[in-house]
Amino acid sequence: MGRHGIKVVLGLGGWDDSASDKYSRLVNNPSARRTFVVHAVDFIEQYGFDGLDLDWEYPKCWQVECEKGPYSDKQGFADLVKELHEAFSKRGLLLSAAVSASKRAIDYAYDIPSLAENLDWIALMTYDYHGQWDKKTGRVAPMYVNDKDADKTLNVNFTVSYWINKGAAPEKLVLGVPFYGQSFSLVEGAGTGLDTPTYAGGEAGDETRARGFLSFYEICERVRVKGWRVHRDPGGGMGPYATAGDQWVSLDDDLMARHKAEYVRALGLGGVMAWALDLDDFTARYCGCGPFPLLVNINHVLRDKPAPPPCSLKEIQAPTTTEFAETPSISVIIEPEYKPGYPETEISMKEETGRTLDGKPCSGVMFRADDHDCSKYYMCINDQYMELLCPAPLVWN
C-alpha cells in the first residue's frame, strides 16, 4: 500500500483488548511508558509502518464501565500520548487515537487540550450510540438530537460540538461513519418503530456471523432480495431503518454517508473514518450500484470525485415490498441549544443572536433555504451560516 502513496499506521487496542487493566498499568507507570515508546518506535520502523493509532476503549472507562479504572488513567493516557509525540515527531511518524463519542467517557477519559496538541488526528467513534444492549430499538449513529431522546447527548452533532468546545481543533477531528447496522429482534406484538422493546440482537448475517450486527452489503441483500421494508426519517437528518417480521436494523445508507461528509466539509473537520471498508459492498454483488457505494459517496463530497450512481435503499427496494415515503431532503430541525458549538452542559438559557444572512439571525434557526437556488441551503454552525449544496438529485424543500 505504501508504494501507492497510502499511509499505513499500526493499530493498537480495540474493544476486546481493552477489557483488562493492562493499558491502565502501562500509562500509570512512567518507566513502563518510556519502555513502550522505545519499543513502539523500533517496531514501527522495523516493519515500515507510518505511525501508530491508539484504540484503548477507554481510559478510566474500560469497555465503557467507568467504575473499573482509576481516575489517574486520564492523565496517564495524556502523558503517554505526549511522550509518543515527542519521539514520533523527530522521525516523521504519525500518531492518532480512536476516541469515545460518549459524554461520560469523554469527561472521565480525555485531557482534550493535551490530546489535541499531541495527536495528528483524533478519530471520533461516532457510532454504536444504540444497540441490542439497550433492550429497545435505536439508531446506530443518529446525526442530530431527536425531541423524543431521553439522553440528548447521544448523537453525532453533540459529540463533535463537545470535543470542539473542550479544546479540540476541528481540523484534527475525523468523523466516524458506520458501514454496518445494529440489528435487533423485536418482542412479539410490540411494534416495529423506534424504541420498540427487543429480546435480543438481530439474527446473524451469513457473512459477518455476529448476532446484532449486519454489514451494509448484507442489509442491501435483505432489502433487495428478501423484501425488507425501509423506513426513513421524515426530516432526512437520520439514517433509515429496515424491518421484516421480528427483525429490525438501523444503518447509514449512501444518502446519510453523503450528508455526514457535507457536515465534515461545513465544519472544517479533518475527514471521515469508516468502520469498516470490508463492510461496504466492495464486490458490487449486493447493492447493485457499483463497488464501495458508501465510500464512493464520501469521496464524491470530500475529494470532488465524480458523482456516483443513485444507490439509496429506495432505489434497490424489492418490488414486492410495501411502498414507503419519498426520499426526504437532508434538512433537519435541531433544538437551538444543540446547534454546533453549544453542548448541553455549557449552554446559556439566554437566547443568543449570532451573525446574520440577509439580515436574518443565525442562532436558533439551524437551516435556511437559499432565496434563489433550490440546490443550495445554509447551515448554522458556530453562529455563522455555511453554504451547502444538496446531493444530486435532491433539492431543498
From TrEMBL:
A single GO molecular function term of this UniProt record: endochitinase activity
Q: Where does the Chitin-binding type-2 domain lie?
A: 359-397
**So what does this thing catalyse?**
Random endo-hydrolysis of N-acetyl-beta-D-glucosaminide (1->4)-beta-linkages in chitin and chitodextrins
Keyword Disulfide bond listed? The answer is yes
* Family under the similarity heading: Belongs to the glycosyl hydrolase 18 family. Chitinase class II subfamily.
Residue ranges constituting the GH18 domain according to the UniProt record? 1-305
* Annotated protein name in UniProt: chitinase
